[in-house]
Design goal:
The protein is an alpha/beta fold and 411 residues long. It has helices at residues 23-37, 55-68, 84-100, 106-122, 146-163, 180-195, 210-217, 221-224, 235-248, 255-265, 269-282, 290-306, 308-313, 318-329, 337-344, 348-360, 379-386, 400-410; strands at residues 44-48, 72-77, 168-173, 200-206, 225-226, 335-336, 364-365, 371-374. The strands form 2 sheets. It has a 5-stranded parallel β-sheet with strand order 2-3-4-1-5, with helices on both faces. It has a 3-stranded antiparallel β-sheet with strand order 6-8-7. Helix 10 (255-265) runs parallel beside helix 12. The structure holds adenosine-5'-triphosphate and magnesium ion (MG). Residues 12-13, 55-56, 173 line the site of magnesium ion (MG).
């Protein structure tokens, strides 16, 4: 059928044609927002899930709800190796400028700008030619300790927002990439704002290891946040994700075709979009038949192997690829760390730094102590497809020529 009319949307953070199976999460977020707006306590939330389950899409959806409720939404993505202070200053500055134009919030917004300026300067945030137009407010948020300055700065901004009648909702994607001191300071800030009854709420999203990282940074993080799990879609929702957009296009799908897509994708949202997209293109007319879905499988797998999966594999060093391949040999997982090391032909202590490097890169996580699992669904099948004749390279240092190639590749 006409690819120009294809409603499906495989991509990163791309709004799906039907946001299926997430009513509970959006409803709970809506309740939390409504409570904050009314000055009632509500927990901040960290959405946890594997790659491609729809965390970014949900954060954006909740940001829309927040805006509709009259919040000032501030959206950030935490890429690897970027400081929280650097990410926060520019959007907060824009926000305060906006508030300073409102008559009843002018003075407090200007004070907020002064505090933000002091904060930016003490944490050496290179604001380039960003103009502040106010003097730095000495003595607030400028001690140099992020754990005390970040809460003070956010309180100052939040007070200005409160005065303007629109509380702040902060959205941070990929929270697992924040450094430990940044994450700790963020948690302390949420804690302080909650204690003060400040109208503020944080919605974060990240890989499943985030819950553990937050708990390690501050033990009370467990009680401070709700951690909604964003998983694969249950059968009925996965069907809806496909049937509803088709229906809007006046297209139907045979049950056999739908079942085939569900089996292949295991209900993972990104894969559902990819399969549905290729199935649409592979079929010539409504109703879509099993044969179309079967042909699309080949296309979808090719798209994944050269895109979604491949970009992740390309970020790894040869030794790390080896580790992932050994895991894949054992199946979808999770696997015991000892078993993976055994497959690799090395001992657990030698394997440990490889494993922690992969956790940092967001490739694997530890669902529970001693276990290791892929953060990308179906990655084991991909690893076996892409390295079919694999044998462990065994103990010893990383081969020199491979190492050199890696450095060149990264420069
Ligand atoms: N509830 C849903 N129903 C149908 N499709 C969805 C749903 N949620 C997300 N998608 C689709 O899944 C894909 C991945 O979504 P998104 O980028 O939000 O995932 P993510 O969890 O943020 O992934 P990553 O961890 O890689 O950043 C997108 O193409 C999106 O349109
Ligand atoms: Mg995302």
């Amino acid at each position: 059928m006409d690819p120009k009319r294809n409603p499906f949307a495989p991509g990163a953070g791309t709004q799906p044609p039907e946001l299926a199976g997430r009513d509970k999460i959006t409803h709970d977020a809506d309740v939390a927002l409504g409570r904050v707006k009314r000055g009632r306590p509500a927990k901040s939330q960290m959405l946890l899930g594997l790659r491609g389950v729809g965390k970014t899409v949900l954060l954006n959806r909740i940001a829309e709800l927040a805006e509709r409720e009259g919040f000032q939404p501030v959206l950030l993505e935490a890429p690897e190796d970027r400081r929280l202070a650097e990410m926060l200053v520019p959007p907060l500055r824009t926000l305060l400028f906006k508030l300073s134009r409102l008559e009843h919030a002018r003075e407090i917004a200007k004070r907020g700008l002064g505090v933000l300026r002091a904060f930016a300067s003490v944490f050496k945030v290179r604001v380039g030619d960003i103009e502040f137009t106010v003097e730095a407010q000495a003595g607030t948020a400028d001690s140099g300790s992020l754990e005390s300055d970040l809460p003070e700065m956010l309180l100052a901004v939040s007070n200005a927002a409160k005065q303007s009648g629109s509380p702040i909702a902060l959205f941070i994607d990929e929270v697992q990439y924040l450094s430990e001191p940044d994450l700790a300071a963020l948690i302390v800030s949420v804690h302080r704002m909650t204690q003060r009854g400040s109208p503020f709420i944080l919605f974060g999203a990240g890989l499943p290891q985030l819950a553990g990282l937050a708990g390690e940074a501050k033990s009370y993080a467990e009680r401070l946040f709700d951690y909604p799990e964003v998983g694969p879609l249950a059968d009925e929702s996965a069907r809806e994700a496909i049937v509803m957009p088709l229906r809007r296009e006046g297209v139907t799908i045979k049950d056999e075709a739908l079942t085939l897509i569900l089996q292949q994708t295991k209900g993972y949202p990104y894969f559902l979009q990819e399969w549905a997209y290729h199935t649409w293109n592979a079929s010539s007319a409504s109703p879509i038949k099993a044969e179309d879905a079967r042909r699309a499988t080949e296309q979808a797998l090719r798209a994944l192997d050269t895109g979604f999966f491949r970009v992740r594999l390309d970020r790894l060093r040869p030794r790390e690829k080896d580790y992932m391949r050994a895991m894949a040999e054992l199946g979808p997982g999770p696997h015991r760390s000892g078993e993976i090391a055994q497959k690799l032909g090395i001992d657990v202590t030698t394997a440990a730094p490889l494993r922690s490097g992969l956790i940092k890169k967001g490739m694997v996580y530890s669902p529970q102590h001693g276990d290791t699992a892929f953060t990308v669904p179906l990655f084991d099948e991909f690893m076996r497809r892409s390295l079919p004749n694999w044998a462990p390279s065994g103990p010893g240092p990383e081969p020199r020529n491979r190492r050199r190639r890696r450095h060149r590749g990264h420069s």
